[in-house]
Design goal:
The chain has about 190 residues and is an alpha+beta fold. It has helices at about 1-20, 170-180, and strands at about 25-30, 35-45, 50-55, 60-65, 65-70, 110, 115-120, 140-145, 165-170. It has a single domain, classed as Sandwich (Immunoglobulin-like), CATH 2.60.40. The protein is globular, with a radius of gyration of 20 Å.
Length: about 190
């Protein structure tokens, strides 16, 4: 009997090592249009959604829009490569919109003396892979900061102006797998 329990324990231990590691937190480095690092946004899976801890400096003072975008590509200077707001449920834009908001709609941030230190909650998002609302998609997602504040209603993006900063949210392991060279089968 002890041997069976021992074998089951060893089998469980071996199988658990083979399972994929679920990502529960990550840091997203943010860059401005000239490629300068502004700091990081920490992204943590919580029971209520995804918490973002914004620790940045070098931004213009004032209120700025902050959104998750549908592609994990940040090509400066305009960051249009990030695509539109992340919207897996095809919702209307805006945290104040009566019909709901995009999953990627986040509260505005306020920059004072070039710095921002804020915590935000994104209840519609997750880091759990395979979920429709996961930030860890095959092509990734990104975080965008805009030059002005998001008004919370205007379609499709809150009338918040140009994109001034971007950070890529990607599963680095998945990206490495995507970049591995696929060798054609050997001819006989």
């Amino acid at each position: 009997m002890k041997r069976k329990v021992y074998l089951l324990f060893v089998l469980f231990f071996i199988l658990s090592g083979c399972m994929e590691k679920e990502i529960t937190k990550m840091e997203v480095e943010m860059f401005n249009a000239t490629g300068d690092s502004l700091g990081t946004i920490k992204v943590d899976e919580q029971s209520e959604g995804v918490q973002l801890t914004v620790l940045l400096e070098g931004l213009p003072p004032g209120e700025h829009g902050l959104h998750i975008h549908e592609k994990g590509t940040c090509k400066a200077p305009d960051f249009k490569s990030a695509g539109n707001h992340f919207n897996p449920e095809d919702s209307m834009h805006g945290l104040l919109h009566p019909e709901g908001a995009h999953a990627g709609d986040l509260p505005n941030i306020i920059v004072e003396d070039g710095k921002v230190d804020a915590q935000l909650m994104a209840p519609q998002l997750t880091l759990k892979s395979g979920k429709k609302n996961s930030l860890l998609r095959v092509k990734g997602t990104s975080i965008i900061i805009t030059e002005g504040k998001d008004d919370g209603m205007t379609q499709p993006s809150g009338d918040s102006g140009a994109r001034i900063a971007c950070g890529e949210i990607t599963d680095k392991e998945a990206k490495r797998e995507d970049k591995k060279e696929v060798k054609p089968p050997e001819e006989e």
